[in-house]
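BUG: 3D viewer hangs when loading the predicted structure for this chain

Environment: internal workstation, default settings.
Expected: structure renders.
Actual: progress bar stalls at 90%.

Input used:
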Amino acid sequence: MVARTLTVVAVAFAVLLAVASSVPAQDSVTVKLDPQSNSGTSGTATLSKAGDKQTKVTISTQGGGADAQPTHIHKGTCANLDAKPAFPLSPVTGGKSETTVNASLDDLKKGGYAINGHKSAQDLKTYVFCGDIKG
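Structure tokens produced before the viewer hung:
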């Protein structure tokens, strides 16, 4: 009886492992960018695997100003950002930006990071959008 129970448990475990290993790893994640400082600027950032240790970050925003908006990935969350950028991103110009960073998508998803944008190079203290990167 014990041997049969162990066999059933072993088979069930093997089936679970086979199912788990057949589920493909997520190769991209979309981050919602919410307005900050009453800016009216919102959008999305799509993070896509660009290699084992690289991630392509594609940002699309609406409601931004005409000036280029410096943008970064910071450690922390939108509610509590580390002031020092972890990864600089190309400025959002005309509502668009695309950058490849030297960090794996998995590390960014599990590492407690957020994407934030500034009003302009002259006004870095005013954050206009932010979104937490979640796995």
